[in-house]
Amino acid sequence: xxxxxxxxxxxxxxxxxxxxxxxxxxxxxxxxxxxxxxxxxxxxxxxxxxxxxxxxxxxxxxxxxxxxxxxxxxxxxxxxxxxxxxxxxxxxxxxxxxxxxxxxxxxxxxxxxxxxxxxxxxxxxxxxxxxxxxxxxxxxxxxxxxxxxxxxxxxxxxxxxxxxxxxxxxxxxxxxxxxxxxxxxxxxxxxxxxxxxxxxxxxxxxxxxxxxxxxxxxxxxxxxxxxxxxxxxxxxxxxxxxxxxxxxxxxxxxxxxxxxxxxxxxxxxxxxxxxxxxxxxxxxxxxxxxxxxxxxxxxxxxxxxxxxxxxxxxxxxxxxxxx
Amino acid sequence: xxxxxxxxxxxxxxxxxxxxxxxxxxxxxxxxxxxxxxxxxxxxxxxxxxxxxxxxxxxxxxxxxxxxxxxxxxxxxxxxxxxxxxxxxxxxxxxxxxxxxxxxxxxxxxxxxxxxxxxxxxxxxxxxxxxxxxxxxxxxxxxxxxxxxxxxxxxxxxxxxxxxxxxxxxxxxxxxxxxxxxxxxxxxxxxxxxxxxxxxxxxxxxxxxxxxxxxxxxxxxxxxxxxxxxxxxxxxxxxxxxxxxxxxxxxxxxxxxxxxxxxxxxxxxxxxxxxxxxxxxxxxxxxxxxxxxxx
Lengths: 323, 295
Description:
The complex is a heterodimer of chains A (323) and B (295). By secondary structure, chain A is mainly alpha-helical. Chain A has a domain at 92-317: Orthogonal Bundle (MetI-like fold), CATH 1.10.3720.10. Chain A has helices spanning 2-26, 39-66, 82-89, 91-126, 134-142, 149-159, 178-190, 192-204, 207-215, 220-248, 252-258, 271-280, 289-317, and strands at residues 69-72, 75-78, 281-282, 285-286. In chain A, the strands form 2 sheets. Chain A has a two-stranded antiparallel sheet with strand order 1-2. Chain A has a two-stranded antiparallel ribbon with strand order 3-4. In chain A, strand 1 (69-72) and strand 2 form a beta hairpin. In chain A, helix 2 packs across helix 13, helix 3 crosses helix 4 and helix 4 (91-126) runs antiparallel to helix 10 (220-248). The radius of gyration of chain A is 27 Å and the shape is globular. Chain B is mainly α and 295 residues long. Chain B has 2 domains: 21-74, no CATH class; 80-289, MetI-like fold (Orthogonal Bundle), CATH 1.10.3720. Chain B is built from 14 helices and no strands. Chain B has helices at 2-15, 22-53, 57-62, 76-84, 87-118, 124-136, 143-152, 159-183, 187-195, 200-207, 212-228, 231-236, 245-255, 260-289. Chain B starts with a helix and ends in a 6-residue tail after the last helix. The interface between A and B is large, with 87 and 89 residues.
């Protein structure tokens, strides 16, 4: 190691020196010789790495490990993939599982198709150079995002309660409308995030680019679709993948409004509530930490599938522009 | 043909500043109409809850859209809340948990980020990647493992247990974002300090104030999900004496569903602190989310 470094500059230098003499001289200085042990490095890095490893990474791995175990005569024993087989082949359990997966995908689809257009519209309006009162609008539009999901759930339960007369039908009480209504409540809360992220992209577009489009005769509509929209498209991808991950482990809203049973008749049951019930049990079914871990592992795989789909399909198809 | 050529230069001045014709002024109003409509959708329900929490039972049902006035003003909901539950304790718990977690995330996060940005060492990229993985994986998936761990070390139903879990949850993003902030701190500054004999800890303490915008953004971004979380308090610390506001509100709401005065009062109490804090810091928050750009 020390051979090449020590002998490097004097012997091999000539070829380089001709091209970039100053850098060749400067470079060796910042690249200090590797010190054997730097205690401050440990002091800086260890606390964060330790807390993260002990309270996040280890439990995650331990949960996956537990999904391969089951209580046999009161003792935990290794059972391989039995839990997964049981979950996916047992009539009742697999029906619940696929129901939750499907509902979760609907939950996400509503987010995707509602929050992106509305978020983009609001961001486009906010980013207009001539708009007055921008920061007031921005602040007000973001308020629901700062609330607890529990609060959001109850706010809408009250507002949508037929007693108050805004709506006639109990939207949250019918199995045909409950899931969609809950999804829209969630969109209502989180719309601020896509809005702000789109807004950040739109205000970063250099004025020259927009001027050039204007000079070329593009009207506002054309400028939006031909210039701004392609620049926002990568962010729509990022927002969608963040939303997907968040939706796949959503729980608070459904639990608050519909309880752990996610009624009526499991029509609002998603992965988070299924996980909770499997882990802690409810009514007649007993809770099981190993089966809970199994559900959590499947949630992880679903999330992983979504993220990989994003990286390998969306990211490759969508063009990214450097501004 | 000549008329077309003539018409072109004359038209634009008509649309210019002094006084816009009606269509243009209407056009300028459209964005405001859309934005005001959405502001009503976003804030209307919240306003309705806050307004009605100060009204008597009859007025809540009789005229839900009217603001409270002298004859309908009523604080009985708030009285019920403080009589029947220990809301001040829940507030204190939430406050302790949030402040400690955010402090630890910022302290440990900036230390690790400083090291990752400042030094070169074996396995540096690997460590950065290891920390970053946690940004995409939700910590909730490890709940079974976390509960077993906390049972083992005796931290179930304790504020400390929640603080440690939330710190682990907030660290990945904090390290990732703060590293890029530390990389922007001018090198000359740090080297000048070193030449003056400052040790690495002193250099760190000099660099931290320079990344204040990053710390503010991460602080706010970490704070909200912790204060608002229901999942971990419900599973790791459901006991009355360590209950958080969110869990306390959830439990109270479940119990008093039919007492609208009390329900509205709890909702108002639970959401106003966060809204107030958000409005005070909204600039930093937006700046954090937009990566420093602000218009």
